[in-house]
Specification:
This protein has 262 residues and is an alpha+beta fold. Helices cover 45% and strands 14% of the residues. The termini are far apart.
Length: 262
């Protein structure tokens, strides 16, 4: 089960759970692109002030700006920064797809409208992270591995609004924690990824009993994600069967420092 958001991705498999920022390594590239865009804008205003009105807005129609040598160099650097960003994004998509497929080739994910995200408040995030391209790559590699990516209808399932107890409550986007009066408390995206594992793709019906049964046996869903304040904290893959006590028990003791009794 997977839950893809504008800037995060949550994944739940038979023995693993993960929540991390989607293509977080691209952020330094975006900063460089933004600096070059501001530099080119300053060169445009200095080289052709007639292209702007008294309020600093660019006039409509054909621009008569004759670019200087420095402006042309800035354009070349900007094009190269866009090329490097696209190449790095393609590489990050491929690595993430391979990680997901290493835990299973039959994947269930909600079918989302990325164009609606672009028209809303996530236009820059969709432009930079390209979630639609990532899902296409996931489908291609899953089919090549003998599996499939089954997309669920969010209008029928509403995985981010339902609970295994049957309660359904509409949540605002800024609320990232699923908290139900039945006692379940988990990170919202991880919980949706868990529910996606128990949705029948043919009928779009959620098997709440099976999801509740798995949730009762999975200590990683609530323990690993209940304390996450928001999408800015990055988590890697964590084994479901391993507890904190067993991790501490199997961890080697640090060597004694100088002047300290061994």
């Amino acid at each position: 089960g997977a839950e893809l958001g504008p800037s995060t991705i949550a994944m739940v498999s038979d023995a693993e759970v993960a929540l991390e920022r989607f293509c977080a390594e691209l952020e330094p590239q975006w900063q460089r692109v933004r600096r070059l865009q501001r530099q080119l804008d300053r060169q445009h205003r200095a080289g052709s002030p007639a292209c702007f009105d008294e309020r600093g807005r660019h006039l409509r129609g054909r621009c008569a700006w004759t670019r200087s040598r420095r402006a042309r160099l800035t354009q070349v650097a900007l094009a190269e920064a866009h090329r490097r960003t696209a190449e790095q994004r393609r590489s990050l998509h491929g690595n993430l797809v391979n990680r997901i497929l290493s835990h299973g080739t039959d994947i269930r994910i909600e079918r989302l409208s990325y164009r609606a995200w672009q028209r809303g408040h996530f236009a820059r995030s969709v432009r930079d992270r390209a979630p639609g391209m990532f899902v296409s790559e996931l489908k291609r590699k899953a089919a090549s591995a003998g599996g499939s990516v089954q997309e669920l209808d969010p209008r029928a399932t509403a995985l981010s609004q339902v609970c295994v107890c049957g309660r359904r409550e509409r949540k605002p986007l800024q609320l990232r924690l699923h908290r139900c009066p039945c006692g379940i408390r988990a990170q919202r995206d991880v919980f949706s990824a868990l529910l996606a594992r128990h949705v029948d793709p043919r009928t779009q019906a959620l098997d709440a009993r099976a999801a509740q049964r798995e949730l009762s046996m999975r200590h990683d869903i609530a323990a690993r994600t209940a304390s996450i304040p928001g999408p800015n904290r990055q988590l890697g893959w964590h084994p479901a069967a391993r507890t904190e006590a067993s991790v501490r028990a199997g961890r080697p003791q640090p060597a004694a420092t100088t002047g300290e009794a061994a």
